[in-house]
C-alpha cells in the first residue's frame, strides 16, 4: 500500500468529537437559500491586475440555513473480509482509511455519530455521505433553527459514498442550489460548511487544488481536491463555489495525524445529480458490468507489450462466463476505446461501464499483441447489494445469521465450485455467530460436516442441533483460507 493510501483519512471513520463519541465520516449538512448569490470579491480588473481577496461573510449567511446536522445511532461493524468485487471483478482497493477507535468485536457494537448534510429540495430531501448513515438504526436531523426531525434513508450508494435522506417538514425549507462541478477550475475559491469535531456550522475556505483525484476509496474515484479545511465531522457537508452553488460533497481528508493538513476531497456534485433520481425512486443504483479486472499501464508494460503509449486499461483477468468472456476478451488485452470514447486512464473505465445501460451492446477497441481490433460486448447488470438488502437484519433466532446465495463473481474470486457454499450476508451483534468470529462475507461450506449449497440446506442442518451442542461451520474467507467455527447457542 502506498503512502497516500496509508494516510488518507476518511471523515467517516475519523470523527472523534469533543465529547469523544462521534464516529465515522458522519458530517453535518449545509443549508442554502435558493436565491441567487453574487460572486465573491471584486471582479477581476480589465488590466489584468490581481483583485483583492474575497469576503465569504455574505455567502456564508445566505447558504448556511440549508445545511443540517445529522446524528445517528448505528451498529459499528467489525472490519470485514471477503467483500464483493467491483464492477470489473476487482478486489476492493485497500484505501487506507483509518479508524481512530479500538477494533470492534466480531458482529460490532452500537455507537453514536454526528455528521453533515444539506437540503436539496424544499420538501425535506437531504443529500449526504453514505458513510455518515451506514448501519444507522436511528437518524436525527437538526435544522439551523434547532428544529429536529427523524430522518429516513431512502437511498444509498456505497460505491460513490452517497446517501439520500428524507424528513417530513412542517413548512417550506431553504435549499442548496446545485452547481456544475465539470465547469469547476483548478484555482477557484471554494467554501465548506460542516460540523468538524462537533463544532456546528463551521465555515472554512480555500481553493480547488486539483480535479479527478483517485485516492483508492472506491472503483469510481473522481474527487475534487481542496485546501479548504475539512476535518472529521465535515463529511456529507457541501463545498460551495463563489456563486453559492454546491459543487461538491466533502468526504475525506489526507492526513497522518487525523487533522487537516490542507488536502481534502469532495465528491463532484454532478455525480450526485446523475444518481439522485434513481436513489430516490429505487433506493439503489443499477450499473453496467463488463466482467474484467483491469490495471494501469506503466511505461515498462507499454514497452514490453509494444504499445505506442501508456493510455488504456490493461485486462489482468476475465470473469468466467461474464460479458467480456462471452465476447472474446482475453487476459493481456488493452482496452483503448469504450463505446467510441478513448480510455486515457485505466481509472476512467469503471465509470464508463457503470454508466452503460444494462443490455446495451458496446464496441470495445482493444490492442492484442500489437494488433488493434474491435469486439462487441453486451453489458450485463452488476449484481450488488441493494438498499432493501442493507435494511434486512439478520435472523434474531438461535444463531444470529443472515444468508444469501453465492454470486458468480464471488465464486470465481474465492475458488468455489458450482453449487458450493452459502454467503453470510450479515451477523447479528452479540449472537452465537458473532461470538464465534463469523464475519459478513464468509462462505459457509459445511454445516455439521455436511456440504451445503443453499440457505435452506443451512437451515435444515442447523435445525438438527439439539440441546447445548454447538453448531459446527466450515467457513471460506478468501481463496485458500478455510476454517471451522463452533457456534454455541445462548
Which terms would index this structure?
disordered N terminus, 3 domains, Pdz3 Domain, 7-stranded antiparallel β-sheet, alpha+beta, 490 residues, Thrombin, subunit H, single chain, 33% strand, 6-stranded antiparallel beta barrel
Give a verbal description of the structure.
The protein is globular. It has three domains: 1-42 and 51-285, Thrombin, subunit H (Beta Barrel); 288-381, Pdz3 Domain, CATH 2.30.42.10; 392-487, Pdz3 Domain (Roll). Mean pLDDT is 79; it is low at 1-38, 79-104 and 385-396. It has eleven helices and 29 strands. The protein has helices at residues 3-7, 57-63, 130-133, 269-282, 299-304, 323-327, 349-354, 387-391, 408-413, 432-435, 455-462; strands at residues 8-10, 67-76, 109-121, 125-129, 136-142, 148-150, 152-157, 162-166, 177-178, 189-194, 202-213, 223-226, 238-240, 245-254, 264-268, 288-289, 292-295, 313-318, 334-338, 341-342, 361-368, 371-378, 380-381, 401-404, 422-427, 443-447, 450-451, 471-476, 482-487. The protein is an alpha+beta fold and 490 residues long. The strands form five sheets. A seven-stranded antiparallel sheet has the order 6-5-2-3-4-8-7.
User: What is the CA-based Rg, rounded?
Assistant: 24 Å
CATH topology of the largest domain: Thrombin, subunit H
Number of helices, where a helix is a run of at least 4 consecutive DSSP H or I residues: 11
The end-to-end distance, rounded to whole angstroms, is 41 Å
Amino acid at each position: 500500500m502506498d503512502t497516500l493510501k496509508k494516510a488518507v483519512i476518511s471523515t467517516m471513520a475519523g470523527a472523534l468529537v469533543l465529547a469523544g463519541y462521534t464516529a465515522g465520516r458522519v458530517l453535518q449538512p449545509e443549508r442554502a437559500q435558493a436565491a441567487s448569490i453574487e460572486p465573491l470579491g471584486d471582479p477581476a480588473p480589465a488590466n489584468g491586475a490581481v483583485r483583492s481577496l474575497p469576503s465569504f461573510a455574505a455567502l456564508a449567511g445566505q447558504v448556511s440555513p440549508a445545511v443540517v446536522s445529522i446524528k445517528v445511532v448505528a451498529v459499528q461493524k467489525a472490519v470485514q473480509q471477503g467483500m464483493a468485487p467491483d464492477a470489473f471483478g476487482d478486489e476492493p482497493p485497500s484505501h487506507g482509511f483509518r479508524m481512530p477507535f479500538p477494533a470492534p468485536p466480531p458482529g460490532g457494537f452500537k455507537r453514536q455519530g454526528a455528521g453533515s448534510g444539506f437540503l436539496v429540495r424544499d420538501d425535506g430531501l437531504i443529500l449526504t455521505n453514505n458513510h455518515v448513515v451506514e448501519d444507522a438504526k436511528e437518524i436525527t436531523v437538526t435544522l439551523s433553527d434547532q428544529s429536529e426531525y427523524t430522518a429516513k434513508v431512502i437511498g444509498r450508494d456505497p460505491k460513490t459514498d452517497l446517501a439520500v435522506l428524507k424528513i417530513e417538514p412542517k413548512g417550506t425549507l431553504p435549499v442548496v442550489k446545485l452547481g456544475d462541478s465539470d465547469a469547476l477550475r483548478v484555482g477557484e475559491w471554494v467554501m465548506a460548511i460542516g460540523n468538524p469535531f462537533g463544532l456546528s456550522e463551521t465555515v472554512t475556505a480555500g481553493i480547488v487544488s486539483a480535479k479527478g483525484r483517485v485516492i483508492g476509496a472506491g472503483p469510481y474515484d473522481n474527487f475534487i481536491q481542496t485546501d479548504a479545511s475539512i476535518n472529521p465531522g465535515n463529511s456529507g457537508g457541501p463545498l460551495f463555489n463563489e456563486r453559492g452553488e454546491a459543487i461538491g460533497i466533502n468526504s475525506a481528508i489526507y492526513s497522518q495525524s487525523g487533522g487537516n493538513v490542507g488536502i481534502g476531497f469532495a465528491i463532484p456534485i454532478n455525480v450526485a445529480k446523475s444518481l439522485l433520481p434513481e436513489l430516490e425512486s429505487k433506493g439503489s443504483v443499477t450499473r453496467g458490468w463488463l466482467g474484467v479486472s483491469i490495471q494501469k499501464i506503466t511505461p515498462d508494460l507499454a514497452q514490453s507489450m509494444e504499445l505506442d503509449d501508456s493510455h488504456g486499461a490493461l485486462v489482468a483477468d476475465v470473469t468466467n462466463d461474464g460479458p467480456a468472456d462471452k465476447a472474446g476478451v482475453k487476459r493481456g488485452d488493452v482496452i483503448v476505446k469504450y463505446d467510441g470514447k478513448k480510455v486515457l486512464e485505466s481509472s476512467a473505465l469503471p465509470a464508463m461501464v457503470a454508466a452503460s445501460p444494462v443490455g446495451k451492446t458496446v464496441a470495445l477497441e482493444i490492442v492484442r499483441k500489437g494488433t488493434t481490433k474491435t469486439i462487441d460486448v453486451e453489458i450485463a447488470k452488476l449484481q450488488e447489494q441493494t438498499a432493501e438488502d442493507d435494511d434486512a437484519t439478520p435472523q434474531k433466532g438461535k444463531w444470529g445469521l443472515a444468508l444469501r446465495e453465492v454470486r458468480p463473481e464471488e465464486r470465481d474470486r474465492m475458488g468455489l465450485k458450482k453449487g458450493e457454499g452459502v454467503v453470510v450476508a450479515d451477523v447479528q451483534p452479540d449472537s452465537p455467530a458473532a461470538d464465534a468470529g463469523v464475519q459478513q462475507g464468509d462462505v459457509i461450506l459445511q454445516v455439521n460436516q455436511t456440504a451445503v449449497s443453499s440457505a435452506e440446506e443451512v437451515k435444515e442442518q442447523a435445525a438438527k442441533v439439539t440441546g447445548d451442542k454447538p453448531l459446527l461451520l466450515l467457513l471460506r474467507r478468501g481463496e485458500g483460507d478455510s476454517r471451522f467455527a463452533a457456534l454455541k447457542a445462548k
